[in-house]
Amino acid sequence: MGRIYKKPVSMTKIAMRYCPGCGHSIAHRLIAEVIDELDIRERAVGIAPVGCSVFLDEYMDCDMIQVPHGRGCASATGMKRVRPDLIVFSYQGDGDLAAIGTAETIHAATRSENFTVIFINNAIYGMTGGQQAPTTMPGQKTTTNPYGREVKVHGYPIKVCEMLSALDGPIYLERVAVNNVPNVLKAKRAIKKAFQIQLDGLGFTLVEILSPCPTGWGVIPKKACEYVDEKMSKYYPLGVYKDLTKKK
Amino acid sequence: MEETITKLKAKIKIIETLCKGCGYCIDACPKKILEMASYSNQSGYHPARCIKPEDCIGCALCYQVCPEIAIEVEKL
Question: How many CA atoms, within 13 angstroms, populate the side-chain half-sphere of residue A141?
Fold first, then answer.
């Protein structure tokens, strides 16, 4: 008898209501698999964001809470300080973490709060109809700037991993993608490592996931995956940005 | 003629009602045994289907990329 690959135990039977080819559901599955493998389902608490993944609490079969826009890291700080035995993870998108929640994220990181942030970066506001997000790349076309992002008018995008790696607080920062099989497997390793660091009580961890958004970008799913490889990975290079686990 | 008996390496099951027809599994499959069906499922998408289940090697690459977790693979 070999291994059976099927829906992880930490996910409910509810079918996910994302667009075809969305990267969110792959990220959900990876988190659920990691929770299963580390056997922490009974003490895991997840934070659902605002955005496409607002129904994350329906899909995950562990304790979940849905918090207002951008307040994921603030709520996670409260939960982790009251109940240090819990395993807290905050799942946030780019409009959530990099726009309205920037202050909470930076301060939680610099305090090195002991929880894990899963940051989904798809360079667009997916749920509201594909508007320009703080992570939209220069030249990328969205519904609110049909001629492409112009840096003189709209400014430069925020590179969250690079920005946080300048701080002393974060323990582990990595950027991964979920557009093909090798990247999905790397993403799972990164999420598992982040959860393991939290279990060891070392401090703040963030995994940024470049995710395809075919509907928001207006392309077919296959082209969206190629776009992540050709454009996004060039502007947002994949890799480990900070890893202090070896020094401590 | 000698008949060769091939042992099944893996079982693949595609839950067609969940499939949204993104086609990620079709690109990921190293054996190219998946294809888009000509009919639609209840949501109106053309689901992926396995045309040669006996050729499946159980690598589960289709499972790894499937956003809907509509593919179950059992390695025998």
Answer: 6
pLDDT for the residue numbered A246: 78
Q: How confident is the model at residue A4 (pLDDT cuts 50, 70, 90)?
A: confident
Which residues in chain A have Cβ-Cβ distances shorter than 8 Å to B60? 3, 5
Number of domains observed in the structure of chain A? 1
Contact A221 B22 (CB under 8 A): yes
Give the minimum alpha-carbon distance from A106 to chain B in angstroms, rounded to a whole number: 31
Q: Does A178 map to a domain? A: yes
Contact (CB, 8 A) for A73 and A90: yes
Where do we find the tokens 């946080």? A164
For residues B5-14, b (16+ Cβ closer than 10 Å) or e, as one string?
Answer: eeeeebebeb
More confident residue, A158 or A2: A158
> Which runs of E-coded beta strand occur in A94-211?
116-121, 172-177, 205-210
- Single pTM value for the model: 0.93
Q: Find the mean pLDDT for residues A156-163.
A: 93
Residue with token string 């690598």: B59
Q: Any CB–CB contact under 8 A between B12 and chain A? A: no
Task: State chain A's mean pLDDT as an integer.
Answer: 92
Q: Which domain holds residue A122?
A: 24-243
Most B CBs within 10 Å, among A3, A181, A217, A229, to test the B interface: A181
Contact A70, A97 (CB under 8 A): yes
CB contact under 8 A, B22 and A26: no
pLDDT beyond 60 at A89 = yes
Per-residue pLDDT, averaged over A38-65, amounts to: 92
A14-40: b (≥16 Cβ within 10 Å) or e = ebbebbbbbbbbbbbbbbbbbbeeeeb
| Structural domain includes residue A16 | no
Show the domains of chain B with their CATH numbers: 10-75 (3.30.70.20)
Tell me the residue length of chain A: 248
What CATH number is attached to the domain comprising A192?
3.40.50.970
> Which chain A residues touch B76 with a CB distance below 8 Å?
1-2
